[in-house]
Amino acid sequence: MQSYLFLHPETITPQQLEQEMLPLLPAWRREQVLNYTPFSSKVLCAKSFLLLKEGLEKDFGITQEVSFDYLEHGKPVLKEYPHIHFNLSHCQNGILCVIDEKGPVGCDIEAKNRKVREPLLLKCCNERELEEIHSNPCPDQAFMRLWTRKEAVLKYTGQGLTQDLPSLLSDKLLETVELETFQEEDVFYSICQSRQMN
Fold it and tell me: pLDDT tens digits, residue range 37-55?
């Protein structure tokens, strides 16, 4: 599995987007980018695809245009290369792409400085997780780190938010997946893949 991380998307200028990024996108992705209203969303949409394009070329020698199909709950797959698995995630501070041909992957990236409200904690966490978060000197960061782990698993399975969030990271699940979490500058990110594939 390979991962590609791009930090500080806020540094990309309108000129860079228009002159350096949009020309590299297939027409369908360019249209998606241009349909976004906030400039920051245009950048995230464009750059996440360019990370995927970079990985496909570097890891698999694929230089031709690719397009997406979508699974039942919205997880994208490569229409032309269904045996290559990938996942994309982005937040205001970073963009992440993971690619693997051995099996499904999931990833999530979140800004460390996001504030979290108690109702969200209660919806997403079990009692043990709540205790760990509340006893942490930086509870918001503790939750965001945990959330990247849960979201990476959700994206790995392709089930989205249909699964029970408090019980998601069960011991049984963690026996079957490889789930790693990283901190880089002002982001946390997690990557999930099948343990049997390693």
Answer: 999 999 999 999 999 999 9
